[in-house]
Amino acid sequence: MSAGHTLGEIAARFGLGLHGDATIAIRGVATLSRAGTGDLSFLANRLYRRQLPTTAAAAVVLTEADRESAPCPALVSRNPYADFARIAALFEPPVPIAAGIHPSAVIDPSADIAADASIGALVVVGPRSRIEAGAVIGPGSVIGEDCAVGAGSTLVARVTLVRRVVLGRRVLVHPGAVLGADGFGLAFDQGHWLKVPQLGGVRIGDDCEIGANTTIDRGALEDTVLEDDVRLDNQIQIGHGVHVGAHTAMAGCVAVAGSTRIGRNCLIGGAVGIVGHLEICDRVTITAMSLVTHSIRQPGEYSSGLPAETSASWRRNAARFRQLDTLARRIKTLAQEPDHHD
Question: Would you say residue 96 lies in a domain?
Fold first, then answer.
């Protein structure tokens, strides 16, 4: 845990407007409801505005519009959530990791390891793979053949790069992720499945983050691609040959089938399913639990998941759903009948 900072120091460091005592010591960060003496909190979501007048925080990061409602000193920001994230990083600085190769690591003689890279315990690095300057390969990770880990990237622990996986600079991969496994390519012939060779690789751009236990398959012929600054949550499946545009973010348990192209600056909610061979344009938001079965060519927000309701109400609506076709046919028939009132 980092030592404390004064409110004035924080305001100056991040270019925020300060209203209140600049000498207040900030020792940590917390939510509005749980903050206490020495804690800095923030207000970014209107749903939590009711908690602001009663917060016990030492100070709050918020917009100018909310400043008058704060019962404590305030740091005024145009984007409170982003600035709070930057401030919070002060209180958990990265732990220094020593360069070098752990004695238990197994490194193929043809691999190229930068002198200041860190290779942890029980790591395996395969033939012709490259680990660039300042990269950290955490314990138990496996890097297969013809892979590359860019400068400043981190594989936290037990990460697997199977084959032909190239990571850009400053990529963060969380434990259990598997990149470069075979895509689900099968051809049915004469009563059984024939495996289609997966000859492509995986290319990950700079500043991407890949969550725990997420899987990204290598392409069948062309590479699976994540452009710069793509952010993937935990337990996401990216199928073979998928292309994800820069600055797109996906929440947990999303599944994207093969050969789909997703544009830039998209937001994909949790547990969304996207079928294969589709195109989704830039700046599309898809809400949680939606199923995307056709290409989306206009920016905007799209939904298909049904919100939860009481079981009794859901059963009644489900029963009526089964009657929709019959009702629609009756309405069509009635519309075609002559008007008997003429």
Answer: no
| Active-site residue flag, 247 | no
Q: Please tell me the distance from the alpha carbon of residue 63 to that of residue 82, in angstroms, as a whole number.
A: 12
Q: What is the pLDDT of residues 70-127, one digit of tens each?
A: 999 999 999 999 999 999 999 988 888 999 999 999 999 999 999 999 999 999 999 9
Tokens of residue 232, six digits: 């993937």
Rounded CA separation 84/61 (Å): 7
Strand partners, 279: 261
Catalytic hit among 174, 240, 243, 247: 240
pTM exceeding 0.70: yes
Strands 291-292 and 273-274: parallel
Alpha-carbon gap, residue 319 to 323, rounded angstroms: 7
Last residue of a domain, one of 46, 64, 91: 91
Give Cα separations from 282 to 53, 270, 295 (angstroms).
39, 19, 12
